[in-house]
Amino acid sequence: MCKRLFGYCCLALALTAVFVSTEARADWFSCNPTEVVTFPGSRIHVGCSNSITLGGNVVRYIALATTHAEADAFLRAGQAALLSGLYFFVDLPVAATTNVSSCRAVDCRTPTNFGVKAR
Questions:
Q1: Predicted confidence band at 103 (pLDDT cuts at 50, 70, 90)?
Q2: pLDDT at 15
Q3: b/e string for 8-20 if b means 16 or more Cβ within 10 A?
Q4: pTM here?
Q5: Do 32 and 50 touch, CB atoms closer than 8 A?
Q6: Residue 50 and residue 40: Cα distance in Å, rounded?
Q7: Average confidence score pLDDT of the chain
Q8: Which DSSP helix (H) or strand (E) runs through 9?
Q9: Are strands 108-109 and 57-65 parallel, antiparallel or unpaired?
Q10: Nearest-angstrom CA–CA distance, 109 and 107
Q11: Rounded Cα gap, residues 108 and 106, in angstroms
């Protein structure tokens, strides 16, 4: 009985640790896309009807350089989310220091990861 109880307590603590670390992440964002735009020689951006506040800025745009190795995948994922009524799921840094050129700190971020997620 004691071993079983100890095992349940360990499991509960492990799940709590995972939950707390996941809960502390405020940088994943489920963007509801309203537009996907390519600016040749500059960036591709996805505009969102919703927003996330990062570093005191209200972010509604997600952008990646057209020269980035993942630019085609970014464009396809953004279009798939827009056309299928799915979320464009992105991992965003709080600071705008890694933003692509012309992605303004006040309303835009360059993601570290991205994908498509069901609603």
A1: very high
A2: 31
A3: eeeeeeeeeeeee
A4: 0.77
A5: yes
A6: 26
A7: 83
A8: helix 2-23
A9: parallel
A10: 7
A11: 6
Q: CA angle, 94 as apex, 113 and 104 as ends, to 5°?
A: 90
The CATH number that domain 27-117 falls under is: 2.40.50
Q: Which two tokens stand for residue 116?
A: 């498509």
Q: Are 40 and 70 within 8 A, CB to CB?
A: no
- Helical segments of 24-98, H only: 71-84
Cβ proximity of 31 and 88 under 8 Å = yes
Residue ranges per structural domain of the chain: 27-117
**Based on the number of CB atoms within 10 Å of its own CB, is 58 exposed (0-12), middle (13-18) or buried (19 or more)?**
exposed
pLDDT at residue 86, as a whole number: 98
pLDDT tens digits, 23-71: 223 578 999 999 999 999 999 999 999 999 998 999 999 999 999 999 9
pLDDT of 80 higher than 70: yes
The Cα–Cα gap between 31 and 23 comes to 18
Best CA proximity match to 49, nearest among 91, 87, 21: 87
